[in-house]
Amino acid sequence: MYQIDYDDVGSTVSDLAEYSLPRFKSADLSDRLAHNNKDELIFNFGKYKGEPVKDNLDYAEWMLKKDFPEDTKNIYKKYLDPA
Prior knowledge:
83 residues; alpha+beta; 3-stranded antiparallel beta sheet; 3 helices; 33% helix; 10% strand
């Protein structure tokens, strides 16, 4: 049996629980979009994974023209044109 040290994890039950929680909250059914801890909409795949959509609007607009799930596209549409 081997032991792995995780220097970034505390030693309490709360620390372990916090470490095991997902880092992002999924925003769509296919998990292409998520919300980060600042509640910003972020990409959850590809070359911009983890980056806010607001910083890569061209990529979001490109995705609207491609074969992505409709729920993902609907979130983009609302984000790009909230009116």
